[in-house]
Amino acid sequence: MTQSYDTYTSHDHAVWKTLFDRQVDQLKTLACKSYLEGLKRIGFKSETIPDFEKETSPVLKASTGWQVVVVKGLVSEAEFFQLMSRKLFPSSRWLRRMDQLDYLEEPDMFHDTFGHLPLLTNADFCSFLLKLSDIALIYIESPEAIELVKRLYWFTVEFGLIKEDHQIKAYGGGLISSIGECDYAIHSHLPERIDFNLFKILDTPVKIDEYQKQYFVIDSFEQLFQSLGDFESILSERTGVGALN
């Protein structure tokens, strides 16, 4: 499947610009340095939707070896992690309408690209994604294991926070692409902000239709990667499937 870039309308580009401009303004103080550096490096522009084939994938490939692949929408866990294990990040090509700026039930292209792709210029974060995907494929036939993989992915890649210069910043794509939840996750007194705890993450159910009640704060992307050894052991113990060698 291709992006079919020429089919985007002036309305589509206007939606992108609206979303892009307000998020960039907000993220100057809320996003982590690695994301902001990646956003600059990847070269997204306010005026036009990014062209995956001509613009985005070449930058990512030169940076960390990753590329973007277009999918119709949500894909199965097996397909998702198979793509990721090949350094292919799946993105839908459709974009929300002006009357859907603040909430969508299903992630669109703005979430997939603006939210996630800039951080794919960070080698440590990419190492985490790659190994997590390889682990997921080992356990893909175990619903119990895949549920735990989804929880770890959700509370890191989608809604993760990171300590940076004695402040808490956002790096998760679900936060980065959300005008409301990003500020809420960092400034609101309502949610818990918990130092990264693998066991607590794996015991916390995912909530997809409301702001999170807990956010987990890492010290570094290297910490994320190092946690995967313990994660493999937990999966092996809980499912009886042998851990990776």
Pick out its properties.
four-stranded mixed β-sheet, 11 helices, 10% strand, alpha/beta, 245 residues, Phenylalanine Hydroxylase, globular
Order of helices and strands: HHHEHEHHHEEHHEHEH
CATH superfamily: Aromatic amino acid hydroxylase
Helix tally?
Answer: 11
Radius of gyration: 17 Å
**What best-fitting shape do the alpha-carbon axes yield?**
globular
Strand content: 5-15%
CATH architecture: Orthogonal Bundle
Determine the fraction of residues in helical runs and give it as a percent range: 40-55%
CATH T-level fold name: Phenylalanine Hydroxylase
3D architecture notes:
The mean pLDDT is 95. Helix 4 (77-85) links the parallel strand 1 and strand 2. It is built from 11 helices and 6 strands. The protein has a single domain (5-239), classed as Aromatic amino acid hydroxylase (Phenylalanine Hydroxylase, Orthogonal Bundle). The chain has helices at 10-30, 33-42, 52-63, 77-85, 109-116, 123-138, 143-158, 173-176, 181-187, 198-202, 221-239, and strands at residues 67-70, 88-91, 161-164, 167-170, 192-195, 214-218.
